[in-house]
Every structure is written in structure tokens, then in C-alpha cells.
Write a structure and sequence with these properties.
This protein is of the alpha/beta class. The chain has 4 helices and 8 strands, in the order βββαβαββββαα. A 4-stranded mixed β-sheet has the order 3-4-6-5, with helices on both faces. The protein has a two-stranded antiparallel ribbon with strand order 1-2. The chain has a two-stranded antiparallel ribbon with strand order 7-8. The protein starts with a strand and ends in an 8-residue tail after the last helix.
Length: 147
């Protein structure tokens, strides 16, 4: 899909939403106090889409905000005039090993537990709310590794 955003073209495999409802939803977060509307919302169809969005933003001086369940506050997960990337579709649990799990950033902690518990395993630490995406707490230090 080739989508003009401002003076530049964004090329992705996935879906690009520019309608007001999608952009307004991406401009909301858990606190409902700050609203910075992006120019577009990308639902990536591949890992390559993520790279394309980041390259596009770097070339055009635009912000990018990956979003999962939007539990950030004070607009921290918003991209005024840029692109919000809806990571919820990137939610696969790829593999479970005794000492690590490989998942997409949009997978929830509940999905991780559903994949690990049948094997008698669980992450050493978990957030209080299991319906957060893994990418959110990990990217802001919301979970810690234990030895």
C-alpha cells in the first residue's frame, strides 16, 4: 500500500488508516487527558512495515509511536503529526523455551502465560494487569529480569 502523508509517501504491506475515528482513537491514552492526533495509524502487515515506518519518519522529521493497549499516560504513546503504529496485530507467541519466550511486541502477558503454563513455566516477573502487551512494559522498564 502506498499512502501519501503530507508531502511524502509511506509504503507498507499492512493497513494505513487516515480516517478521523482511527486517528482519534490513537490520540487517546489511559489517562484520557492529552490528545495528540497522528496523521495516520499503521497496522503493520510485516516486520518490514515497522522498518519502513521508521525510515519514513526519520526522512521526514515525523514522530512514530508504537501502541498496544494504550495504557500510557500524559500523551507519552502518541505521535502528534506523525504515525501511530497499532501493534495489537503483531501478537504471536513464537516459541517457549525453559529460560526464554519469543513473542511479538503486541502479544499480551495473558497470551504468554497461556503458552508457558501448560509447560509448567511462567515468566519470573509479570505486570499486575495481564492484558498489557509485552512491548509496552518491557520498553519502559515495567518488568525486570530476575537472576
Amino acid at each position: 500500500m502506498i499512502v501519501p502523508i503530507g508531502q511524502a509517501l509511506l509504503v507498507v504491506d499492512g493497513d494505513v488508516r487516515r480516517d478521523l475515528a482511527s486517528r482519534a482513537a490513537a490520540a487517546d491514552d489511559f489517562g484520557h487527558m492529552v490528545h495528540h492526533r497522528p496523521e495516520a495509524v499503521v497496522r503493520p502487515g510485516s516486520d518490514g512495515d515497522l522498518a519502513s515506518v521508521l525510515r519514513w519518519a526519520a526522512r521526514n522529521g515525523r514522530r512514530v509511536a508504537p501502541q498496544g493497549r494504550r495504557h500510557s499516560v500524559f500523551g507519552r504513546g502518541q505521535a502528534a503529526g506523525g504515525v501511530a503504529v497499532d501493534m495489537r496485530g503483531r501478537c504471536a507467541v513464537h516459541s517457549v523455551r525453559r529460560d526464554w519466550v519469543v513473542v511479538d511486541a503486541g502479544a499480551t502477558w495473558r497470551q504468554v502465560l497461556a503458552a508457558t503454563l501448560p509447560q509448567g513455566l511462567a515468566p519470573a516477573t509479570l505486570p499486575d494487569y495481564l492484558d498489557l502487551t509485552v512491548g509496552g512494559p518491557v520498553s519502559v522498564g515495567g518488568v525486570r529480569a530476575t537472576a
